[in-house]
Protein backbone atom coordinates (compact mmCIF):
# COMPACT_ATOMS: atom_id res chain seq x y z
CA UNK A 1 0.00 0.00 0.00
CA UNK A 2 1.19 3.51 -0.78
CA UNK A 3 0.24 6.16 1.79
CA UNK A 4 1.03 9.85 1.49
CA UNK A 5 0.73 13.04 3.52
CA UNK A 6 0.39 16.43 1.83
CA UNK A 7 2.26 19.54 2.93
CA UNK A 8 0.76 22.61 1.22
CA UNK A 9 -0.84 25.98 1.85
CA UNK A 10 -4.60 26.41 1.58
CA UNK A 11 -6.19 29.85 1.88
CA UNK A 12 -9.63 31.43 1.97
CA UNK A 13 -10.55 30.94 -1.69
CA UNK A 14 -12.45 27.65 -1.63
CA UNK A 15 -12.55 27.39 -5.42
CA UNK A 16 -8.76 27.76 -5.60
CA UNK A 17 -8.32 25.24 -2.79
CA UNK A 18 -10.54 22.78 -4.60
CA UNK A 19 -8.58 23.16 -7.82
CA UNK A 20 -5.33 22.53 -5.92
CA UNK A 21 -6.80 19.49 -4.19
CA UNK A 22 -7.92 17.99 -7.50
CA UNK A 23 -4.47 18.55 -9.01
CA UNK A 24 -2.71 16.93 -6.03
CA UNK A 25 -5.15 14.01 -6.08
CA UNK A 26 -4.56 13.49 -9.80
CA UNK A 27 -0.78 13.50 -9.28
CA UNK A 28 -1.06 11.11 -6.34
CA UNK A 29 -3.25 8.71 -8.31
CA UNK A 30 -0.69 8.72 -11.13
CA UNK A 31 1.90 7.64 -8.55
CA UNK A 32 -0.24 4.80 -7.26
CA UNK A 33 -1.14 6.37 -3.91
CA UNK A 34 -3.83 4.42 -2.04
CA UNK A 35 -4.32 6.80 0.92
CA UNK A 36 -3.82 10.55 0.56
CA UNK A 37 -4.10 12.79 3.64
CA UNK A 38 -4.45 16.56 3.29
CA UNK A 39 -3.91 19.12 6.08
CA UNK A 40 -6.52 20.54 8.42
CA UNK A 41 -8.62 23.32 6.85
CA UNK A 42 -7.96 22.13 3.30
CA UNK A 43 -11.02 23.98 1.99
CA UNK A 44 -10.96 27.61 3.09
CA UNK A 45 -7.88 27.70 5.27
CA UNK A 46 -7.34 27.91 9.01
CA UNK A 47 -7.60 30.90 11.33
CA UNK A 48 -5.28 33.85 10.84
CA UNK A 49 -4.74 34.23 14.56
CA UNK A 50 -5.73 32.27 17.64
CA UNK A 51 -8.32 34.20 19.60
CA UNK A 52 -9.65 36.54 16.93
CA UNK A 53 -10.55 36.51 13.26
CA UNK A 54 -7.97 39.17 12.44
CA UNK A 55 -7.46 40.50 8.92
CA UNK A 56 -8.04 37.08 7.35
CA UNK A 57 -11.61 36.66 8.61
CA UNK A 58 -13.08 33.31 9.53
CA UNK A 59 -12.86 30.33 7.18
CA UNK A 60 -15.97 29.83 5.02
CA UNK A 61 -18.26 27.08 6.29
CA UNK A 62 -19.53 24.15 4.24
CA UNK A 63 -22.31 21.66 4.88
CA UNK A 64 -21.35 18.04 5.43
CA UNK A 65 -22.84 17.18 2.05
CA UNK A 66 -21.41 20.20 0.20
CA UNK A 67 -20.86 19.82 -3.55
CA UNK A 68 -17.16 20.58 -3.03
CA UNK A 69 -16.81 17.33 -1.09
CA UNK A 70 -18.64 15.46 -3.82
CA UNK A 71 -16.15 16.84 -6.35
CA UNK A 72 -13.24 15.55 -4.29
CA UNK A 73 -14.88 12.14 -3.98
CA UNK A 74 -15.31 12.02 -7.75
CA UNK A 75 -11.66 12.97 -8.23
CA UNK A 76 -10.52 10.36 -5.70
CA UNK A 77 -11.66 7.32 -7.64
CA UNK A 78 -10.08 4.29 -5.99
CA UNK A 79 -7.82 6.46 -3.81
CA UNK A 80 -8.95 7.15 -0.24
CA UNK A 81 -8.63 10.88 0.48
CA UNK A 82 -8.88 12.75 3.81
CA UNK A 83 -9.52 16.51 3.79
CA UNK A 84 -10.37 19.14 6.39
CA UNK A 85 -12.89 21.98 6.37
CA UNK A 86 -15.04 24.22 8.59
CA UNK A 87 -18.35 22.41 8.87
CA UNK A 88 -21.71 24.10 9.40
CA UNK A 89 -24.22 21.87 11.23
CA UNK A 90 -27.22 22.56 13.47
CA UNK A 91 -26.40 26.24 13.85
CA UNK A 92 -22.82 25.56 14.96
CA UNK A 93 -19.43 25.32 13.27
CA UNK A 94 -16.88 22.55 13.67
CA UNK A 95 -13.30 21.98 12.62
CA UNK A 96 -13.99 18.80 10.69
CA UNK A 97 -12.30 16.12 8.61
CA UNK A 98 -13.93 13.81 6.12
CA UNK A 99 -12.58 10.66 4.51
CA UNK A 100 -13.73 10.17 0.92
CA UNK A 101 -13.56 7.54 -1.77
CA UNK A 102 -15.02 7.34 -5.24
CA UNK A 103 -18.31 6.10 -3.77
CA UNK A 104 -18.63 8.97 -1.28
CA UNK A 105 -18.05 9.49 2.44
CA UNK A 106 -16.22 6.73 4.35
CA UNK A 107 -15.81 8.46 7.70
CA UNK A 108 -15.94 11.79 9.55
CA UNK A 109 -14.33 13.42 12.57
CA UNK A 110 -14.94 16.69 14.41
CA UNK A 111 -11.98 18.09 16.32
CA UNK A 112 -12.48 17.44 20.02
CA UNK A 113 -9.57 19.21 21.73
CA UNK A 114 -9.36 22.96 21.20
CA UNK A 115 -6.82 25.57 22.19
CA UNK A 116 -8.58 28.53 23.80
CA UNK A 117 -8.07 30.66 20.71
CA UNK A 118 -10.31 28.40 18.60
CA UNK A 119 -13.39 28.79 20.76
CA UNK A 120 -14.82 31.83 18.90
CA UNK A 121 -14.63 29.96 15.59
CA UNK A 122 -15.47 26.32 16.34
CA UNK A 123 -17.58 24.13 18.59
CA UNK A 124 -15.96 20.96 19.94
CA UNK A 125 -16.61 17.45 18.73
CA UNK A 126 -17.35 14.78 21.30
CA UNK A 127 -16.05 11.40 20.13
CA UNK A 128 -13.29 9.40 18.49
CA UNK A 129 -14.26 6.46 16.31
CA UNK A 130 -12.49 4.36 13.68
CA UNK A 131 -14.25 3.36 10.47
CA UNK A 132 -13.90 0.79 7.72
CA UNK A 133 -12.47 1.65 4.30
CA UNK A 134 -11.28 -0.38 1.29
CA UNK A 135 -7.79 -0.06 2.81
CA UNK A 136 -8.77 -1.37 6.24
CA UNK A 137 -9.85 0.32 9.43
CA UNK A 138 -8.80 3.98 9.74
CA UNK A 139 -9.14 6.72 12.34
CA UNK A 140 -8.76 10.49 11.96
CA UNK A 141 -7.53 13.21 14.31
CA UNK A 142 -7.25 16.95 13.82
CA UNK A 143 -4.31 19.03 14.97
CA UNK A 144 -4.38 19.52 18.78
CA UNK A 145 -6.19 16.17 19.22
CA UNK A 146 -2.85 14.40 18.86
CA UNK A 147 -1.45 16.17 21.94
CA UNK A 148 -3.69 13.97 24.09
CA UNK A 149 -2.68 10.28 24.23
CA UNK A 150 -6.27 9.19 24.82
CA UNK A 151 -7.28 10.37 21.35
CA UNK A 152 -5.06 8.04 19.37
CA UNK A 153 -5.41 5.25 21.92
CA UNK A 154 -9.20 5.31 21.52
CA UNK A 155 -8.85 4.92 17.75
CA UNK A 156 -6.34 2.09 18.08
CA UNK A 157 -8.56 0.31 20.61
CA UNK A 158 -11.39 0.68 18.08
CA UNK A 159 -9.36 -1.28 15.55
CA UNK A 160 -7.62 1.46 13.57
CA UNK A 161 -4.28 0.34 12.12
CA UNK A 162 -3.90 3.59 10.17
CA UNK A 163 -4.38 7.02 11.75
CA UNK A 164 -4.66 10.11 9.56
CA UNK A 165 -3.80 13.28 11.46
CA UNK A 166 -4.76 16.51 9.66
CA UNK A 167 -3.08 19.64 11.02
CA UNK A 168 -2.73 23.38 10.61
CA UNK A 169 0.05 23.46 13.20
CA UNK A 170 1.86 26.78 13.52
CA UNK A 171 5.17 27.84 14.94
CA UNK A 172 5.17 29.31 18.42
CA UNK A 173 3.54 32.73 18.74
CA UNK A 174 5.17 33.50 22.08
CA UNK A 175 8.74 32.31 21.53
CA UNK A 176 9.54 32.58 17.84
CA UNK A 177 12.71 30.92 16.61
CA UNK A 178 14.69 32.38 13.70
CA UNK A 179 14.32 29.09 11.80
CA UNK A 180 11.29 26.78 11.81
CA UNK A 181 13.41 23.71 12.56
CA UNK A 182 14.49 25.37 15.83
CA UNK A 183 10.95 26.21 16.94
CA UNK A 184 9.64 24.44 20.03
CA UNK A 185 6.33 23.72 18.31
CA UNK A 186 8.27 22.08 15.49
CA UNK A 187 9.88 19.75 18.00
CA UNK A 188 6.55 18.93 19.65
CA UNK A 189 4.84 18.33 16.30
CA UNK A 190 7.40 15.67 15.41
CA UNK A 191 7.49 14.24 18.92
CA UNK A 192 3.73 13.67 19.06
CA UNK A 193 3.68 12.05 15.61
CA UNK A 194 6.35 9.52 16.51
CA UNK A 195 5.14 8.89 20.06
CA UNK A 196 1.51 8.27 19.07
CA UNK A 197 2.54 5.85 16.33
CA UNK A 198 4.90 3.92 18.63
CA UNK A 199 2.72 3.76 21.74
CA UNK A 200 -0.26 2.49 19.73
CA UNK A 201 1.78 0.49 17.18
CA UNK A 202 -0.08 1.97 14.22
CA UNK A 203 0.87 3.60 10.93
CA UNK A 204 0.60 7.36 11.35
CA UNK A 205 0.00 9.68 8.37
CA UNK A 206 0.49 13.31 9.43
CA UNK A 207 -0.31 16.19 7.05
CA UNK A 208 0.25 19.86 7.82
CA UNK A 209 -0.20 23.25 6.25
CA UNK A 210 2.74 25.32 5.00
CA UNK A 211 3.08 29.06 4.47
CA UNK A 212 1.32 31.66 6.60
CA UNK A 213 -2.16 32.90 7.44
CA UNK A 214 -2.30 36.18 9.30
CA UNK A 215 0.07 35.93 12.28
CA UNK A 216 0.34 32.14 12.04
CA UNK A 217 3.33 30.54 10.31
CA UNK A 218 2.72 26.87 9.58
CA UNK A 219 5.42 24.25 10.01
CA UNK A 220 4.87 21.76 7.21
CA UNK A 221 6.76 18.62 8.34
CA UNK A 222 4.19 16.22 6.89
CA UNK A 223 5.27 12.63 7.37
CA UNK A 224 4.49 8.93 7.43
CA UNK A 225 5.52 7.13 10.62
CA UNK A 226 5.73 3.37 11.05
CA UNK A 227 4.30 1.47 14.04
CA UNK A 228 7.71 1.49 15.72
CA UNK A 229 7.85 5.28 15.70
CA UNK A 230 10.28 5.47 12.78
CA UNK A 231 9.77 8.20 10.17
CA UNK A 232 9.41 6.53 6.78
CA UNK A 233 8.94 9.68 4.68
CA UNK A 234 8.71 13.41 5.34
CA UNK A 235 8.56 16.81 3.63
CA UNK A 236 10.37 19.06 6.14
CA UNK A 237 9.10 22.66 6.04
CA UNK A 238 8.39 22.99 2.34
CA UNK A 239 5.35 21.97 0.32
CA UNK A 240 5.45 18.46 -1.03
CA UNK A 241 4.27 14.89 -0.61
CA UNK A 242 5.59 12.46 2.01
CA UNK A 243 5.04 9.06 0.38
CA UNK A 244 5.83 5.63 1.80
CA UNK A 245 5.06 2.13 0.55
CA UNK A 246 4.40 -0.56 3.14
CA UNK A 247 2.20 -3.50 4.06
CA UNK A 248 0.20 -1.90 6.87
CA UNK A 249 -1.26 -5.08 8.36
CA UNK A 250 2.10 -6.88 8.24
CA UNK A 251 3.99 -3.95 9.81
CA UNK A 252 1.45 -3.59 12.61
CA UNK A 253 1.47 -7.34 13.27
CA UNK A 254 5.27 -7.38 13.37
CA UNK A 255 5.36 -4.46 15.80
CA UNK A 256 2.92 -6.24 18.12
CA UNK A 257 4.48 -9.69 17.84
CA UNK A 258 6.38 -9.64 21.15
CA UNK A 259 5.09 -6.53 22.90
CA UNK A 260 1.44 -5.79 22.18
CA UNK A 261 0.68 -2.49 23.89
CA UNK A 262 -3.08 -2.68 23.49
CA UNK A 263 -3.35 -6.25 24.76
CA UNK A 264 -0.99 -5.69 27.67
CA UNK A 265 -2.71 -2.63 29.13
CA UNK A 266 -3.90 -2.73 32.78
CA UNK A 267 -6.95 -0.43 32.72
CA UNK A 268 -7.88 -1.32 36.30
CA UNK A 269 -4.68 0.26 37.55
CA UNK A 270 -5.12 3.54 35.68
CA UNK A 271 -8.07 4.82 37.69
Notes on the structure:
By secondary structure, this protein is an alpha/beta fold. It has helices at residues 14-30, 67-76, 149-157, 184-200, 248-255, 267-270, and strands spanning 2-8, 35-37, 61-62, 80-89, 92-101, 104-110, 131-133, 136-142, 162-167, 203-209, 212-213, 216-217, 223-225, 231-234, 240-245. The strands form 2 sheets. Strands 1, 2, 3, 4, 5, 6, 7, 8, 9, 10, 13, 14 and 15 form a 13-stranded mixed beta sheet that branches. α1 packs parallel to α2. The chain is globular. The mean pLDDT is 96.
Features:
single chain; two-stranded antiparallel sheet; hydrolase; Aliph_Amidase/BUP; C-N_Hydrolase_sf; Nitrilase/N-carbamoyl-D-aminoacid amidohydrolase; C-N_Hydrolase; alpha/beta; Putative amidohydrolase; 6 helices; 271 residues
Q: Work out the oligomeric state of the chains in this entry.
A: single chain
Helix content: 10-25%
Distance between the termini: 39 Å
Low-pLDDT stretches are none
Topology:
Blueprint: E1 2-8, H1 14-30, E2 35-37, E3 61-62, H2 67-76, E4 80-89, E5 92-101, E6 104-110, E7 131-133, E8 136-142, H3 149-157, E9 162-167, H4 184-200, E10 203-209, E11 212-213, E12 216-217, E13 223-225, E14 231-234, E15 240-245, H5 248-255, H6 267-270
Parallel strand pairs: 1-2, 1-10, 2-4, 3-4, 8-9, 9-10
Antiparallel strand pairs: 1-15, 4-5, 5-6, 7-8, 10-13, 11-12, 13-14
Helix pairs in contact: 1-2, 3-4
Domain CN hydrolase: 1-248
Keywords: Hydrolase
Organism: Modestobacter roseus
Amino acid sequence: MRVAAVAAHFGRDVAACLTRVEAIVADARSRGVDLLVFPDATLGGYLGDLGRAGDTGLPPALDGDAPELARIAAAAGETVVCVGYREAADGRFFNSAVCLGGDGVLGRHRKVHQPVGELPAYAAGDRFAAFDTPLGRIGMLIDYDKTFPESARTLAADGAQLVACLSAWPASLTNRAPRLVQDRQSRLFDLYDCARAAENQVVWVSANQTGAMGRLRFLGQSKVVGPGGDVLARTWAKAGLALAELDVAAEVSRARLVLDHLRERRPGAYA
